[in-house]
Specification:
By secondary structure, the protein is an all-alpha fold. Helices cover about 80% and strands about 0% of the residues. It is built from 6 helices and no strands. The relative contact order is 0.06.
């Protein structure tokens, strides 16, 4: 029985390492991390960005594997986490769309030549307003 649990734990650890390696490789390939470092003009602190991303991944995994753990800072930390996670997911989505040339192809087909930054801002605001309506409006409770 103990051997079975040890083998299952090792298999889970190996699968987790494989998935996390793939996730971080995906983030590097689509250029999210290097682009964020470049936009911040902080190339000298690259190691801090990398450590923050790794620590965030570890903490997120620990909290998802052990849901009984409580975080003592409550709502302020939850707001900070939600804001940070939203920015991160938005960066990944935009970087992936940029890699796939989604925006240039769409703008070319719609004959948009001026106001492209405003279209991008409108898309971001629409996504934000939709998220706020979803979570604050109680839509997650209705089924």
């Amino acid at each position: 029985m103990l051997t079975k649990h040890i083998v299952m734990g090792l298999c889970g650890l190996a699968a987790g390492v494989g998935v996390s390696a793939g996730t971080f490789a995906f983030l590097i390939v689509i250029g999210v991390i290097p682009r964020m470092i470049g936009k911040c003009n902080r190339a000298a602190e690259t190691i801090h960005f990398e450590n923050a991303i790794i620590c965030g991944g570890i903490v997120g995994n620990v909290l998802s594997v052990f849901p009984g753990l409580s975080v003592p800072l409550g709502p302020p930390l939850l707001c900070l986490y939600g804001f940070s996670a939203g920015i991160f997911v938005g960066c990944i989505a935009v970087a992936l769309a940029e890699i796939l040339n989604t925006f240039p192809i769409t703008f070319r087909r719609m004959n948009l030549k001026e106001g492209l930054p405003w279209v991008m801002v409108a898309m971001a605001l629409g996504k934000s307003v939709g998220s706020f309506c979803y979570f604050w409006g109680g839509y997650f409770m209705q089924q």
